[in-house]
Amino acid sequence: MAAKGEVQAGPPLLHTFDLVNMTNKTVTITKIEAGCGCLRQSLGQMVLQPGAKTQLILEVNTLTQPEGPNRWQAVVSYTLQSPGVPDQTGELLLQITATLIREVIIQPPQIAFSATGSASQTLTITDKRPKPLTVTKVTTSAPHLSAQWAPSAKPLAGRPLTQTVTVQLLANAPVGHRDEVVVLYTDDPAYPELRVPVRVQKHAAATVRVVPEEVNLRLAAGQTDASALVQLRSRDGQDIAIAHVESDLPGILLKHSNGRGAVATLRITIPENLTTQAGKCHVRVRLEDQSEAVIPVMWTGRKK
Asked: Domain coordinates of the chain in residue numbers?
């Protein structure tokens, strides 16, 4: 275990573990599992002959961790191999401990985007010290992320200095999931850079038009169940076909058209056992071309 004592939160916390093969067998490191997403790893060599050594660097993003005592760990899985002998497996637990002291606060400490087009979020940097840092430069790890910071204004008497950075996901970002980072450079040697994790989930723009886009069902007096018909059309005029439909609420009845055509239809029925009170759900429709549409469905409770 590596005990780091008191550490200023903000800059990355690094520790290098020396891994030495003390056996007379070949050791192969097969996997390293970190205890949280705040932990990054860098391994020098995966296969160690008897007596060989490698280094494992663990880096903690302290910006996202709570103030006070903290413990981070990683599990190293390995295999022992020797001719004529069955392989043996084992695990090694590595831990880093530290008490984080937070003088500089970034909110939110990490960003998550989930969008089909452009989107933006604002970071707020607050320094509680008498002589606060100033952000001098901002960069991102990807061309589809932009970041701009506002010059710091003179704080009100008795209040800490606050600065803002606007992070934007551009509309031309590629579809899919990726992990990026925004780096804030400052004029403070104790905090030369602050790294803010950014998780991007860019969705493909809808290729199908749904009518109606959402279903609202109102039950009349004496009505025990309710249903609605939804039509789906391709935005480019091509024939479409429904491959699968599902609801995030069990018991919703779904019946869709079969085969390809200019229009696909879906009937959504709320059965009697679900209309005793108002409710809502989402119905997900997957087409044969793997595109999807999500339809919000809401209904009132039946009237007596």
From this structure: 2-101, 104-202, 208-299
Domains 2-101 and 208-299 share a fold: yes
Calpha distance 16→31 (Å, rounded): 17
pTM of the model: 0.60
Can you name the CATH fold of 104-202? Immunoglobulin-like (2.60.40)
**C-alpha gyration radius of the chain:** 28
208-299 CATH, one of 2.60.40.10, 3.40.50.2300, 3.30.365.10, 3.30.1340.30: 2.60.40.10
**In the chain, how long is the greatest CA-to-CA distance?**
82
Please state which architecture CATH assigns to domain 2-101. Answer: Sandwich (2.60)
pLDDT at 157 over 70: no
Q: 10 Å Cβ neighbour count for 138?
A: 19
Query: Does residue 259 come out as left (phi exceeding 0), alpha (psi in the -120 to 50 range) or beta?
Result: left
Name, in order, each residue with C-beta under 8 angstroms of 5's C-beta and a sequence gap of 6 or more: 98, 99
d(CA 174, CA 202): 7
CB 35 within 8 A of CB 73: yes
pLDDT tens digits, 52-84: 999 999 999 898 888 999 999 999 999 999 888
Provide, for the chain, the percentages of residues in helix, strand and coil under a 3-state DSSP scheme, each rounded to the nearest 5. Answer: 0, 60, 35
Taking only the tens place, the pLDDT of each residue in 259-299 is 999 999 999 999 999 998 889 999 999 988 878 888 999 99
Confidence at residue 241, expressed as pLDDT on a 0 to 100 scale: 93
Q: Are 133 and 160 in contact (CB under 8 A)?
A: no
Alpha-carbon dihedral 100, 101, 102, 104, rounded to 10 degrees? -110
